[in-house]
């Protein structure tokens, strides 16, 4: 190559660098500049879609104002171009400042075959391709690969420290299909972002994208209780340029505009209940708001879920008919079996309960045996894994939760965050013979959720029917009560 040619190339490269530098706070202008819109495989495409442009413009405005870290959450239907926008944002940030970043997704396959491959595609189209290298795990600047990079890291609860923090002046996190990323990864990432972005000269950005498949979890909370911390966008697939409108309209026609299927896959709104969620959030919220009502002749049940691990709680639930709110629940940590049995005996005596249900699986067997020694009245052990009396459910635990779900239509429960999370967090599936099977506690913990101690305690109160008080009295009034009494106390 001649000296003249080298000088021409250097001059051309210098002009590109100068142009790119002007886009430091203009991601939309950058995207329009670095990709060959209307040419090659982008023929017929004039630039970003309207919703993509709005997010790029908002991010640019944030950078210009210098107001700290930027957190953007996008929930949408299918096929709108989330992967393209994700790639543009990463390439923009890498091209305009010395970045360090992490990208992850709900599964390793999603990360490798879609999210990260989409970045490779847009990198290959960019006029800045010579600046960077793309590998299966890292996107980095050719001159500073150790300090100027974005890594593709599959999430793992065993390696959550990988999301604990980035130490560059400019940092970015990007979550794809964020609805299914466990809460524990969100929490670690959130802690890692702390301290970045306070300096107006630095950039700290966190982008999360996904279909709103779950009605619980941190992605859902971006649009709920944590909405004040996030720039939120919910995109209807029908409003996007690239989507198959015929298919979308068929879905709406087949399932209905207000169906959960259409909400998630078309409208980009969260479902009334997640596709695997056993108890809808609305049912729980209504039970919290509902006034507690019960009758003295209804039996008072004390149900006890016994903790198995150090970070779990032993929970005592009191329920009389439709009322599981009036008598305060008890939660204990760190007690041995003898101490728990003593607490059960004490509470049963104080409140004069009619029946005590005890989870006798694992260490609960020792608690149950000790309660029998203490002559706790009408004490009954319940094995969660035993056979269900109903053909609908796979085991006793699923049956109790099913009875509890029916009861919630007319019952009242305490305003307790742990209880609400337990009731709405549990998912279910079907066995090969079409029986309902609840998610295991171990699997809930893998999703970043706690053991549903409070939920199991309430469910235990539906282990077996308990007769109303006074049935031994031979009177026509009590006979009528016996005929009318509904042990599940369901709403009529």
Would you give an account of this structure?
By secondary structure, the protein is of the alpha/beta class. It has two domains: 22-267, P-loop containing nucleotide triphosphate hydrolases (Rossmann fold, 3-Layer(aba) Sandwich), CATH 3.40.50.300; 281-484, Nucleotidyltransferase, domain 5 (2-Layer Sandwich), CATH 3.30.420.240. It has 17 helices and 15 strands. Strands 3-4-5-2-6-7-1-8 form an eight-stranded mixed beta sheet. Helix 13 (396-407) packs across helix 16. The longest helix is centred in the N-terminal third of the chain and has 19 residues, at 3-21.
The CATH topology of the largest domain: Rossmann fold
- Mean pLDDT metric: 87
Q: Please tell me the CATH architecture of the largest domain by its name.
A: 3-Layer(aba) Sandwich
Put simply, the count of helices is 17
For the biggest β-sheet, the strand order reads: 3-4-5-2-6-7-1-8
Portion in helices: 25-40%
Q: Structural class from helices and strands?
A: alpha/beta
The shape is elongated
CATH superfamily of the largest domain: P-loop containing nucleotide triphosphate hydrolases
Layout of strands and helices, then pairs:
Elements: H1 3-21, H2 27-34, H3 50-65, E1 70-76, H4 82-96, E2 99-105, H5 108-125, E3 132-134, E4 138-141, E5 149-152, E6 170-176, H6 183-193, E7 204-210, H7 218-222, E8 231-235, H8 245-255, H9 260-267, H10 281-289, E9 300-305, E10 314-320, E11 330-332, H11 337-351, E12 355-359, H12 364-373, E13 379-382, H13 396-407, H14 417-425, E14 428-430, E15 436-438, H15 441-446, H16 453-460, H17 476-484
Parallel strand pairs: 1-7, 1-8, 2-5, 2-6, 6-7, 9-12, 12-13
Antiparallel strand pairs: 3-4, 4-5, 9-10, 10-11, 14-15
Helix pairs in contact: 4-5, 11-12, 13-16, 14-16
């Amino acid at each position: 190559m001649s000296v003249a040619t080298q000088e021409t190339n250097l001059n051309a490269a210098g002009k590109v660098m100068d142009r790119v530098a002007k886009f430091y706070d203009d991601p939309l202008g950058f995207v329009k500049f670095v990709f060959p819109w209307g040419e090659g495989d982008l023929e017929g495409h004039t630039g970003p879609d309207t919703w993509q442009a709005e997010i790029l413009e908002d991010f640019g405005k944030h950078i210009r104002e210098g107001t700290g870290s930027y957190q953007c959450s996008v929930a949408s239907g299918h096929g709108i171009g989330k992967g393209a926008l994700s790639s543009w944002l990463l390439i923009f940030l890498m091209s305009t400042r010395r970045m360090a970043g992490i990208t992850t997704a709900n599964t390793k396959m999603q990360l490798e075959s879609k999210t990260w491959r989409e970045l490779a595609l847009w990198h290959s189209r960019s006029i800045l391709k010579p600046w960077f290298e793309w590998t299966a795990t890292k996107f980095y600047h050719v001159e500073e690969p150790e300090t100027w990079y974005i890594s593709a890291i599959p999430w793992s609860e065993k390696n959550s420290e990988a999301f604990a923090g980035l130490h560059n002046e400019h940092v970015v996190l990007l979550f794809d299909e964020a609805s299914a990323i466990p809460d524990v990864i969100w929490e670690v990432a959130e802690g890692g972002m702390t301290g970045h972005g306070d300096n107006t000269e630095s950039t700290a950005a966190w982008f999360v994208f996904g279909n709103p498949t779950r009605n619980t979890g941190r992605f859902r909370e971006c649009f709920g209780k944590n909405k004040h911390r996030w720039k939120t966008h919910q995109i209807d697939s029908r409003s996007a340029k690239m989507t198959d409108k015929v298919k979308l309209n068929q879905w709406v026609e087949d399932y209905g505009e207000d169906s959960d299927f259409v909400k998630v896959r078309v409208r980009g709104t969260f479902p009334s209940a997640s596709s695997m969620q056993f108890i809808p959030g609305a049912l729980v919220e209504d039970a919290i708001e509902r006034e507690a009502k019960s009758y003295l002749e209804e039996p008072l049940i004390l149900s006890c879920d016994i903790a198995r691990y150090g970070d779990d709680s032993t929970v005592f639930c009191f329920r009389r008919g439709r009322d599981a709110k009036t008598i305060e629940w008890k939660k204990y940590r760190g007690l041995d079996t003898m101490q728990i049995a003593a607490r059960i005996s004490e509470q049963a005596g104080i409140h004069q309960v009619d029946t005590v249900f005890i989870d006798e699986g694992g260490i609960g067997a020792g608690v149950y045996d000790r309660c029998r020694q203490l002559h706790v009245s009408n004490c009954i052990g319940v094995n969660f894994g035993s056979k269900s009396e109903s053909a609908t459910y796979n085991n006793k635990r699923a049956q109790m939760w099913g009875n509890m779900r029916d009861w919630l239509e007319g019952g009242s429960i305490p305003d307790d965050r742990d209880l609400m999370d337990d009731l709405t967090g549990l998912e279910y599936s079907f066995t090969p013979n079409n029986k309902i099977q609840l998610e295991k506690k171990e699997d809930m913990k893998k999703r970043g959720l706690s053991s549903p101690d409070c939920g199991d305690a309430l469910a235990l109160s539906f282990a077996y029917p308990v007769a109303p008080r006074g049935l031994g009295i031979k009177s026509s009034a009590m006979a009528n009560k016996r005929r009318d009494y509904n042990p599940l106390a369901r709403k009529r």
